[in-house]
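Assess this:
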Amino acid sequence: MKQQSLFSPTMRDIPAGADIASHQLMLRAGLIRQNAAGIYSYLPLGKRVLRKVEEIIREEMDEAGGQELLMPAIQPAELWEESGRLDDYGPELMRLKDRHTRDFVLGATHEEVITSLVRDELNSYKKLPVNLYQIQTKYRDERRPRFGVLRSREFIMKDAYSFDASKEGLDQSYQAMYEAYEKIFSRCGLDFRAVEADAGAIGGKGGTHEFMVLSDVGEDTIAYSDSSSYAANIEIAEVPKPNVERRGEEKPLEKIDTPNMRTIEELSAGLGIEAKDILKSVLFFVDDEPVLVLCRGDREVNDVKVGRYFDTVQVESASPEQVLQHTGCRPGSIGPIDLKEGIQIIADHEVAGMMNSLCGGNEEDKHYTNANIERDFRVDGFGDLRFIQEGDPSADGQGTIKFAKGIEVGHVFKLGTKYSEALKAEYLDENGKTQPLIMGCYGIGVSRTVAAILEQHHDENGIVWPKAVAPFDLHLLTLNAKKAEQSELGTELYASLRKAGFDVLYDDRKERAGVKFKDSDLFGLPVRIACGKKADEGIVEVKVRRTGEMEEVHKDELPSYLESLFHTIQ
């Protein structure tokens, strides 16, 4: 490709509203342009990178036994009604009507479509297992699209679905996808970790892992052991059940005035007590039923774990108005003593060891001191209901927990029979008995992966592409197009290098050398070849973008030199 013809408008300055490196660089290097909030066009350089990532994905998916297909982006809403997700998915699901007023959705994911597609075809155990995948545009109406293509409303995704006749078969399919993902992200040059995760609105029970690219701009927090391979999303990172023992003498319960003290910090400072001795009470609605969740004052209730406790995704924090309606007071004064009828109370494991605690009095500006379980209030159940904290013991018993930020680029789920039962996708087993298909689901954010690569591979001058995903192998520059010997050498090398199998971007523009060098650094191709002052001798300057290493090479030795060089660079 000759750069004179390349549609890749560059920017010298950082664009307004681009807060992270990947968004800035994708705009500055002309990979993308924004059409609306969270909606982007991919220009030729960006499309080339997408294609490279897609090729890696296809190669590893095919190697792992996947078969590519393509499903429609517009899906009948009735399929989502069958699965029960039409209302569960919420406002992120884009909905529309056709001219006949029939309801459709723009595909945020394709569990319903793939299940309906195979339910009449995979009707015998002899046809299993099967793994089907696609690479396609997805749509989610993000409340707050930001960070460029990292959180957008239209994005490119690889989604795969496995179908098995047994849980053991699903385990094998899941492991094959897990290993394929490790190969895919390694080939893309990413520093990542696979972490235990929550299935969220996708649903399903059993194993689920997120593949997280380590990055300070990541929106997810990874909890990992400092002494083992354990890692989990902070949303579900398990806190081992502590050995709690209530010691001491129970003191008399007393209701006290606590004017203008509603937060844990205000109560701790105003009453001179430690936060760990305060009983935090948080009201949730679980499947539309009120539930009071208790934990220590120095902890935070984890709503995802609350949902897992009840085996539901329908968990919402109560609004101040709802708190007042159900408890008779505002947030900050609620507690488990004399709570209105009909509110279930559950508590984090640590609460079982608390004695003589401070808790809300269910009355404005009132709290109880010396509150104790059983004597003063009931607890209907205990569980791991809090967010893990740095320094907590690791769930595998090895080491302590540390935190890191991560960008989710892939997610693998064991769906089980959630969708096959809802949509009646069944097969006949070897005994002629009808059984639901056992499913797995495996997603990769393709466009998000490109952004994650940029977050890890850039410097102050621009992009530094890993060679496997670079839009071109080489950047060939003629430093002074007015010099005949430079132009002639550039044209000669452009032809010979392409013939040798290299993908070359040839900067044949009539621009100053400084402009060309800056654009070359911004584009970040693995190797730059400059035809300059020694062009009349047939000598060019070869520079490795990642290391800055430079070497003068004669044109006759260039193909063999580059072949050797490309074996050493990443």
About this structure: The chain has three domains: 21-238+402-454, 254-383, 472-566. The two ends are 23 Å apart (CA to CA). The chain has a mean pLDDT of 94.
